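We treat protein structure as text, and this decision shapes the records that our systems exchange. Because each token names a local backbone shape, the row as a whole describes the fold. For reference, a complete record is included directly beneath this paragraph.
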Amino acid sequence: MLKEINPSVNIMISPVVELLAAMFRTNCHEQLRSDSDSDYVPIELEKWVNQTRKALTPEMKSELEVFFNFESFFGMTLISNIIFSKQHDNVHSFISHLKDLSPLELITMFTETGYGTNRRIPSPIKDHTELISFINEMNLPEVEKWKLTYLCANAADSKNRFVKLIEEFYQQFYLPESERLAQIHNDSLSELENELQDNLEQKVGKLLNLDYDSNNVIFIPSYFYDSCSFSSYHDETEHLIYGYGVRSLQIKLHEKINEEKLYESFKALADENRIKMIKILIATPCSGYELAKKLGLSNSTISHHVSILSSQGVLTITKQDKKNLYTVNKDFIKITLESMSNFLTE
């Protein structure tokens, strides 16, 4: 159920979104760990990932790599549809909803990765040349473009494979954890609700790494995202869906500025590609897709660098024409460099 904190900030629990997060974590644990705002992953989460991976059949492992790959994250593109078709709170209802979707509807969602053009997939698809032209405009690695081309060309089979993967993973790995996860979600939402009782705008801005200006936000807790986060923008309602790792509340809202923090901030700046990104963004705000095109980097590489810079406060997010644009927090860079200079010379 959606709960309103104020007219533009809402919170909700979604076992369906968490199911997708669990599948993404299973396949991309190492990448999420490297993008984390924390130095470690809880032992129980590490244990769950290892046990789940050992129990996967070769077919499930292969299908997770197809639909929940860190470079393309096709399965995660359903989140916006899940929330606004009101399929977020019951996995069985969600699976029925998936089965009712046409193959083309599902494949269309897979193309909305956030690293494509503003065009939607041609509908109906008249020939493969038109389809390949559309996919080639997307900023995906070549192997992921070929994968998406195959999924689109075999849409009915792709749909059946995806539904089967969801059903099997839910029954075998998510359902046994559902009661524990429900308690974690409830506790986290209570914590978030308490946090937002005062200084709401400031705290929402910290959590989202943006200058909060009455944006319509829906917060969803995720155990499997731990101290990471994900977001999805719904064009029709102009809502930002923000999934936050349950440990990120304390990290982002109550992190102490100390010597260790200074080291981490300096490490975030000490990378050639991140410096290039900062120089580009100082000149003009860009979306992730535009940054990837300008730097010739893959979507996952850009996402990784943006995550690190945002977590340290170097980048903030602004909205323009329904797009997320990254801008540079110049004051933060100046303060960090001055602090490091003082630390080394005093």
Remarks:
- The first strand starts at residue 3 and ends at 6.
- The CA atoms of residues 69 and 212 lie 31 Å apart.
- The chain has two domains: 10-245, 256-345.
- The chain has a mean pLDDT of 85.
